[in-house]
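To whoever is on call:

I kicked off a structure prediction for a single chain this morning and the downstream step that reads the tokens threw a length-mismatch warning. I double-checked the sequence; it's 652 residues and nothing unusual in it as far as I can see. Pasting both halves so you can look.
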Amino acid sequence: MKDTTVTVATTSGNSADTEPFPEPPIDLELGHAAAAAAGEAEEDAMYYADTSLSSSRRRRPMDTLGCKAVSCDSAEETTRNRNHKDEEEDDEERETSCSSSTGSNSGGLFRNNSATNAFAGHRKTIFAVLIFLMGACAAGAFLYNGIVNAQQVQTAEFDQLASEFIVQLENAFKDYELFGLWIKESCRKKSRTSGETSTPLGICSRQDFRELYEYIESAGLEFQSAQYMPYVPRDKRSSVEAEAQAFYEAQYPHVNYRGIVGLFPKDGGGLTVEPQEERDFYWPVHYIEPVLGNEAAIELDLYSSPSQQTTIEHAVNTWLPSITDRLQLVQETEDYAYSIILHHPGIRLSTHNATLNKYPTGISLMVIRIPALLARTSVDAKDSATFYLFDETHTDQDPVFLGANTVYVQPHTNVVSVNPLPELSLDQLQIDLKGQPKTRFELRRVDIADRKWVVAVVSLPDTFEPEFVFVIVGGVIIIVASVILSTCFWGRLQRAGKLHAIKQRAAQEKARIIVESARQQALMERNLNDFIAHEVRNPLSSAMAALSFVSAATEQPRLTEEEKHVMCDDLHIIDSSLQLINELLRDMLELHRASDQQITITMAPTDILRDVLEPVAGILYMRGNKVQVITECPPNMVVQSDKLRLKQIVLK
């Protein structure tokens, strides 16, 4: 024997037509689970196996005497190769279609993911911008409300300052009215020190009036002079003048006493003081304190002045305090300092006789300098401002300037200082303030005695200005907080978006792996089915062919030795084929592991001739075919190998 060779000589012969094995449909859609794909692959394998067996049976025609079974000849091999090639092409087409479908689906998925990511990015930006805009709106609202409230607060404070000034002005003038009433009540009584005949008019003495003046002065009330003006009938004039002359000669010898005097027009304009002519009654300034500095008003008949006459008549007829128009006193040293005279007739008592006491018998006078009145009004001022005082009692003329001063209040010590201002008309004041938009200005009207005064309150520079520092700081804090919040929110959404993208990519990768695994699993299952169908079909075909010969031989009545020997060979072929099939089926689990590339090789001593070549030659041998199988192998050639795998290789 020569070296181990297996020679297969093939001749052209009849070959049965073979159908390609039907290929089961493989659905490789995205998203199928690997288990479902494996199950389908397993069903396909069973389908292939059944189809393979049925095809083998269909391709083996049998005659009654000698059935010629089709072996693994060249025609069948060519058909199988062609079918396998067609299947591979179909697989490639499916894979291409699946890949394109997967690509398109993946592209659509990626496009959708890209669109989703783009929308998520825009959404994060929109949310961050919305938070910032909300913060900006809140800051704007805070700034607006803060500015408006600050302005309203300053306006309210300025209004309160004006109201407080009006109240202080009314209270200050009530002090003058109270002291005027006190003077009137004290002077109407007879002297308590000199008896009833001490004065011609039956009023208090000059000493009593002096003491009263000192009491009033001690109260801190500032006024130019306190006076008492009695009603003097004509018959009492001489006695009144005699008493006064004696007093001034004794107490004030420097006074040039000329009796009761009046005001008369002077040539060239103005008024002059001259002795009063004879009249039915007089209203002279009989008592005056202090005398020094007020000598020009001694025994001056105020009724001789038209303006004073109106004031006296109003006080006498109404029993109410009256105020004269503004006066420029002779002894006044300041250019723009005006004065007024308060006339107080007293009150009508319930004990007065309606006929005898119809009119008051005397009027107390208080000469009040407007600067002193404004200073008393501003003594408790809390804020710095400028105050103007006008008299609009006479509606047929413009408001008359009475006085003005600027009040300065020290911020920490609350020390009040007053500076008088020059005369200025109300119209001119309003015109001047039009060019000062930041200056606050307010007009208030107040009734003082029988007069209607107008108070103009003007703010000073850098006063009553709204404080915007805290408002601006609050707005900035809100803006910064909104920026920080929007940034943090955007960053949080950004991190969440990145995490979501990572999870999404992981899910996509997982899905891709599952799909690829399912595709590989299906491909492996199909290859396994082909492998099983091919491995089982060859020995089964041989066994069936041999069985057909044996069956035909058993129908003959007598068998020769040669026919018995051939039958034994056929039975040996059947046994070898079925043993091979048994081994294949027994090793199905290991063949199934081939799909996972986990097939194992069992190494054992193997006789090449007996364990490999002879079983394979028996399978390949088919009686009636023009195929001769020659086995050449030295006996007892034993190697270390897996005889099943080696038989599969040689059989293929």
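Update from on-call: the warning came from a stale cache, not from the record. Cleared it. Sanity check on the structure: Residues 74-187 form the longest helix (114 residues).
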